[in-house]
Amino acid sequence: MDIINKTEYTAFLQEIKEQVYQSQYEALKQVNKQLIQLYWVLGKSIVEKQEQLGWGKSIVENLSQDLQKEFVGVKGFSSRNLWNMSKFYNCYHQNEKLQPLVAEIGWSHNILILEKCKDDLEREFYIKMTKKYGWTKMC
């Protein structure tokens, strides 16, 4: 029977746990980037179709209903969120400085910053501080 040094084992266990947590964190970051990218593309598509084809507001309602039917149980396709995607795209598509930054924070943070901030300089500040300090809400 092996004799296990409790101190060495505890240190080893801590290393393993840190590796698992780090891997989980990295996976979540990748999922978030993909989600933000998807929402960007959807927002862009909605905006472009409305401009090109003259579609009105009802397109978002119809799209929301159809996506929710197709992707049962998947959150994120409410009409409100689709409008947020359009606003998100409209706000950032001409700003090459902020485009890469928005993928570094979560969707709910992006929407809060989009709604609360008055200009791109303020948005940049809050995006960077949210990423750096893990802010959960703006005062």
Report on this model:
By secondary structure, the chain is mostly helical. The protein is 74% helix and 0% strand. It contains 6 helices and no strands. It has helices spanning 6-53, 58-70, 79-92, 99-102, 107-116, 120-133. Helix 1 packs across helix 3 (79-92) and helix 5 runs antiparallel to helix 6 (120-133). The chain is elongated. The termini are far apart. The model has no long low-confidence stretch (mean pLDDT 92).
End-to-end separation: 58 Å
Main sheet summary: none
| Number of extended strands | 0
Class from helix and strand fractions? mainly alpha
Order of H and E elements: HHHHHH
- Indicate the overall shape: elongated
Helix proportion range? over 70%
Chain-averaged pLDDT? 92
Detail the poorly predicted runs.
Answer: none
Give the C-alpha Rg.
Answer: 21 Å
Number of helices: 6
Q: Which range does the strand content fall in? A: under 5%
What attributes does this structure have?
single chain; mainly alpha; 6 helices; 74% helix
Quick overview:
This protein is mainly α and 139 residues long. It has helices spanning 6-53, 58-70, 79-92, 99-102, 107-116, 120-133.
Layout of helices and strands:
Elements: H1 6-53, H2 58-70, H3 79-92, H4 99-102, H5 107-116, H6 120-133
Helix pairs in contact: 1-3, 5-6
